[in-house]
Specification:
single chain; mainly alpha; 2 domains; elongated
Length: 76
């Protein structure tokens, strides 16, 4: 059986209300705590606005050192 135009409009209005409620919930929800959401833009690059975060962290430096040692065949 086909829906009448009134039923279709009511269904569309209900879908719209649900969509708007979900959007409002996501806006008012807790802020994300991911790395990219909490760190300033361009972290660990020369473009970073925070001068203390313009150099890479110690763990990255250690990783790069190990990678270089492996590339050199274990010779320093």
């Amino acid at each position: 059986m086909r829906k009448s135009s009134k039923e279709r409009r009511e269904e569309q209005a209900q879908v719209h209300r649900i969509t708007m409620a979900e959007a409002a919930k996501s806006i008012k929800g807790p802020r994300p705590q991911t790395f990219s959401a909490t760190m300033p833009p361009y972290a660990y690059t020369s473009l970073c606005p925070d001068p203390n975060l313009r150099t890479s962290p110690a763990c990255t430096a250690a990783y790069l050192r190990v990678r270089e040692e492996r590339a050199n065949g274990g010779k320093s």
